[in-house]
Each structure stands twice: as structure tokens, then as C-alpha cells.
Design brief:
seven-stranded parallel β-sheet; Rossmann fold; 384 residues; alpha/beta; 17% strand
Length: 384
């Protein structure tokens, strides 16, 4: 089943879920359609870049194409003119059987084109596309218009599907399939007592400043150390805050690290911290991959009742949850972990959760079988 994976930018190291589809879906029989190509191509797949320079003729008709798309389809991003013809020719040349658009916003670009070519189109909702994007009435309208054009859709969490449904966006062939984690690679090793880790972009919806202050309240002067992995606009703010709170010697800021280095940190860390919140613009998580990786590595996870996180973290079993912005509660949960005489039960429960719910080999097969069952209802969907 030759699959065209449609994404905005290629290659982005941190988009492990998209990269896994590109590398492994249907035995790796994939091609890539992207908006921009960033210079790296570790998989050597056939690649089409949509945003080629416009011809003079297409520059003249661009305003009319954008206006027509917005009026008829709710989006001005539909391919047109020579670039549309190039893409159609390329998809035929590559003998593409199905299109999987990573993020609903990418599906908007290719859904009509796929229909015109007779190629089934699926999309995968992952977070921003089913949260912040819904703040635009035009985007909601475009999603509603897109639904009949999709053969089916996937979401990393039930939360995102419910959020879409609240805005009247739903599809009868919708499935929750988390991004997942390689549970054979992300495994626990010997844990460093009192070790804490936070991973992710230092941005508003991750609330790193709340994590930092909560840790300082609970752990200052105790045998505990927090490592922050990630960069972003709030990094320098948090570094200054650690100094002001007198916990600089208990906190390490590494900046961004390669994925293998993140894995090594997770494997030896006892407790994973992620205080996810809804940003002012409505942006939310889907179900953070970092939390799934932390569970696979046997990390006790302290997080928030936010988006799909409660679908992974069972409060009091494999981790602890508090409401968004509950800094004192977050601090109390850190204290609770530090005061536990034996943390092994939660560590074991975390690992078992990942094995049962987030094994990416099983989840990839579920996506493949869903596509096969949709396109070939009489086939044996267990064979991919």
C-alpha cells in the first residue's frame, strides 16, 4: 500500500511520530509530500516540495485561486495552476494508493486534490490543529467541509476528537491511536534516587516556570535534582528564576538534545514532570509523546489534568495529576514522591502502562489495518 505522507516541514528530528510513519508504514513503502524541505533526508524517500516558486501566469491568478478556495472550501491553501499539475503528475508517477496527512491543517491542502484523483485521504490530529486552530471560524468551516472528503481520520487522544466534535467536526471513521513509543528501545535502567526530568520546548503551554517554582518549594535543600531538556523563549526566564529561588545547584538546563540523549536521561530518571496548560490562544497538547516515553522508561509522571494526559497517567497508579496551574498541588505531589519509602510499584506500573497502551509497533499496525479495512473491506486486515 504505497502511502504519501503529507507534512509541513521535512525533516524535523523532534517529529518522531511523523518520521516513524515515513520510515515504517506498510513496510516503508512511502513517499513524502512537504511544504518545505529543510535539507536533511535520512530515509532517502521520493520527495515532493509543494511550495515551488510560482510562474508569472500563476502569480496573476493567485489572488483569484485564494479567493475561490476560501469561498468554496474554507481555505486559500489549495494547490493551483502549475504546482497543482506537478503534484498530480508526481503522485501518479509514484503510484500512490493512499494519502496520510499529518495534522488536520495539512489535510486541508490535499483532501480535494486526492478526491479529484481518486486517491483516498486520511488525516492525523495531533494537538494544535484540533485546539488553537478551532479559534478561527473559517478554520472550523474548512474542517467541516473537509469531512466528507476524508476516508477516515486518526487522533492521538480522545480529547482531541471530543474537542473537534464540540465544534461540529466529526467523521464516522475516526480512531484514537496515540503516537506511541518504541518500548523495546525506551526501557528502564537503574534509577538515580531523587532525580527529576522535564523535557520539551520552553513555551507557554508547557509552563516550565510553574514546574520550576513547584520543584523549588518541594525540593530545596533536599536530595533532589531537576534536569530541564529543551530550549525556547522561556529558557532564560527560567534560568534567572532558578538563581533567584536559590536552587541553581539543584537544576540543570541542558538546552535541546538529540533524541537518543533524551532517552538516556529518561531511562535513569525516577520522576518525570510536565505541567501542561492550555495557552491563552487555546493551544493544547494532544497526548505528549514525552509522557509516553517517560512511562516506557518507568518514570513516575507528575502532570496535569490536561488534554489527553489523563488517558495515559492514572492518578495514584503510575503517576500523579493536578489541575492546570495548581502550582501548590504540583509541589505537594513532588513532596509526596520524595517522601515515598518505596517508589518501585509506581515505576513498574508506568512501564506496564506503556507496554499495554503505547507500543508503537502495535499502534502502527492498527493504523495500517484501519486503512486496509476502510479501502478493502473484504480483505484480511491482519495482513499488512
Amino acid at each position: 500500500m504505497r502511502t504519501a505522507i503529507v507534512t509541513s516541514d521535512f525533516f524535523i528530528m523532534g517529529e518522531t511520530f511523523i518520521n516513524r510513519h515515513i520510515e515504517h508504514m506498510f513496510g516503508g513503502d512511502t513517499v513524502v509530500v512537504c511544504g518545505r524541505q529543510n535539507g536533511q533526508d535520512p530515509y532517502g524517500k521520493p520527495l515532493f516540495t509543494r511550495r515551488a516558486p510560482l510562474s508569472l501566469g500563476d502569480k496573476l491568478i493567485a489572488p483569484f485561486a485564494a479567493m475561490s478556495g476560501a469561498m468554496l472550501h474554507g481555505t486559500s491553501r489549495l494547490p493551483f495552476g502549475a504546482n497543482r499539475r506537478r503534484l498530480m503528475h508526481w503522485l501518479r508517477e509514484q503510484k500512490v494508493d493512499v494519502i496520510l496527512a499529518e495534522f488536520g491543517t495539512q489535510a486541508l491542502v490535499v483532501a480535494k486534490l486526492g478526491n479529484d484523483m481518486g486517491i483516498p485521504v486520511f488525516t492525523y490530529w495531533r494537538g494544535t490543529d484540533a485546539s488553537r486552530a478551532l479559534g478561527s471560524s473559517q478554520r472550523v468551516r474548512s474542517y467541516k467541509l473537509m469531512m466528507p472528503r476524508l476516508a477516515g481520520m486518526f487522533s492521538v487522544s480522545q480529547f482531541l476528537l471530543d474537542n473537534l466534535a464540540k465544534h461540529g467536526v466529526s467523521h464516522p471513521n475516526a480512531h484514537v491511536v496515540p503516537s506511541g513509543v518504541n518500548v523495546r528501545l525506551f526501557t528502564p535502567t537503574e534509577k538515580r534516587p531523587g532525580s527529576f526530568l522535564a523535557v520539551g520546548r520552553m513555551v507557554e503551554k508547557k509552563a516550565p516556570h510553574v514546574t520550576l517554582r513547584a520543584f523549588a518549594k518541594a525540593a530545596k535543600g533536599r536530595a533532589a535534582h531537576l534536569t530541564f531538556i529543551g530550549d525556547g523563549p522561556m529558557l532564560s526566564v527560567c534560568q534567572d528564576m532558578a538563581r533567584d529561588l536559590g536552587v541553581s545547584d539543584q537544576i540543570t538546563f541542558t538546552g535541546a538534545l538529540p533524541h537518543d540523549e533524551v532517552r538516556k536521561h529518561l531511562q535513569g530518571t525516577e520522576t518525570f514532570l510536565q505541567h501542561s496548560v492550555t495557552a491563552k490562544d487555546g493551544n493544547t497538547e494532544g497526548l505528549p509523546t514525552a509522557i509516553q516515553e517517560a512511562l516506557a522508561c518507568g518514570c513516575i509522571t507528575i502532570s496535569t489534568i490536561h488534554a489527553g494526559i489523563p488517558e495515559a497517567v492514572d492518578d495514584g497508579v503510575n503517576g500523579l495529576l493536578v489541575p492546570e496551574w495548581d502550582e501548590d498541588g504540583f509541589s505537594d505531589r513532588i513532596t509526596q514522591v520524595l517522601d515515598m519509602p518505596d517508589r518501585s510499584a509506581m515505576t513498574l506500573a508506568a512501564r506496564k502502562t506503556a507496554e499495554a497502551k503505547f507500543d508503537n509497533a502495535i499502534l502502527l499496525e492498527k493504523v495500517e489495518n484501519t486503512i486496509l479495512k476502510t479501502l478493502c473491506p473484504s480483505s484480511n486486515s491482519g495482513q499488512v
